Amino acid sequence: MDKPIIANREVTKHILNTFKLRADKKLGQNFLVDEEIVRKIVEATELTSEDTVLEIGPGLGTLTQALALSEANVVAVELDKRLIDVLDKTVGEYKNIRVVQGDILKVNIQETVGAPTFKVAANLPYYITTPIIFNLLEQKLPIERIVVMVQKEVAERIVAKPGGKDYGVLSVSMQYYTEPEIAFLVPAHSFMPAPNVDSAVIVCKCRKEPPVDIVDEKIFFRVVAAAFSVRRKMLSNSLRNMGVSGDDVKAWLERAGIDGTRRAETLSLDEFAQLTNTFKK
Ligand code: SAM
Questions:
Q1: Which numbered atom of ligand 1 lies nearest the CA of 58?
Q2: Range of the domain at 221
């Protein structure tokens, strides 16, 4: 197939002009125009012809095309109705691409993808980065690997270790479900239009088993949320947001063997698990 490579500034401009389109900022439309970055995303997704990959927000088909060239089956979910005709023209000839119009936060992902296991690749719309990632992970979908472009600052929070200001609910949750890594940074000029922030591609290998033993996942996430709800307060204070009295929090911290003067940002996943497993209402 000798289709032009879409990940190119001139080709992208030509597509936008042909369809009389402007990128819609509200939908987080920053199209990739850097072939090298697109190639690196596909490489990090580690696709074979046996794989199915879900692409969130195919846009003009830039990454979609590169994913299809890896011979994997590509299912691409795009919200913007205007882009469905565009995608038909730009990537419609690839037999291994299926474009679905819909909101990734609303569609039934498992049914839409229709494969027993799959990978995810995307240059995410930044206005809904965390809802998209949480939606994928909390549903416990059979996802093997998530490779996504996010704001650099979000990537840093996702991979942060205890002890720093970046470590929070996002870090604990992502590290509970996956093994996240920053694969590489992406400058603003790799996009059209250029976003106002720096970007990074993260690779998250989804865990088959949680990294810590916990009695109840719901309690675990409630404890994490309560602990970080007032970041600068000591645990003896913030954990009262679990709906327990100061005395009960004190007794609870003793059972868990955790010093109540510490702050949430110093706790490891193991320590959050200890708190979960010793919680009594
Ligand atoms: N993949 C293309 C690229 O790399 O050039 C476009 C990426 S652009 C950053 C984000 C894409 O997500 C846009 O095409 C936008 O219309 C789409 N989008 C925004 N919100 C969405 C949603 N809720 N569900 C599905 N797609 C969405």
A1: 1
A2: 217-279
Is residue 180 lining ligand 1, measured as CB closer than 6 Å?
no
CA-30 nearest atom, ligand 1: 9
* Dist. CA 280 → ligand 1 center (Å): 44
| 119-172 pLDDT tens trace | 999 999 999 999 999 999 999 999 999 999 999 999 999 999 999 999 999 999
Regarding whether 232 and 171 lie in a shared domain, the answer is: no
265 and 231 share a domain? yes
In order, the DSSP letters of 132-174 are HHHHHHHTT--EEEEEEEEEHHHHHHHHPPTTSTT-SHHHHHH
**For 110-119, how does the pLDDT look when each residue is reduced to its tens digit (9 = 90+)?**
999 999 999 9
Which residue puts its alpha carbon closest to atom 22 of ligand 1?
A: 103
pTM (two decimals): 0.96
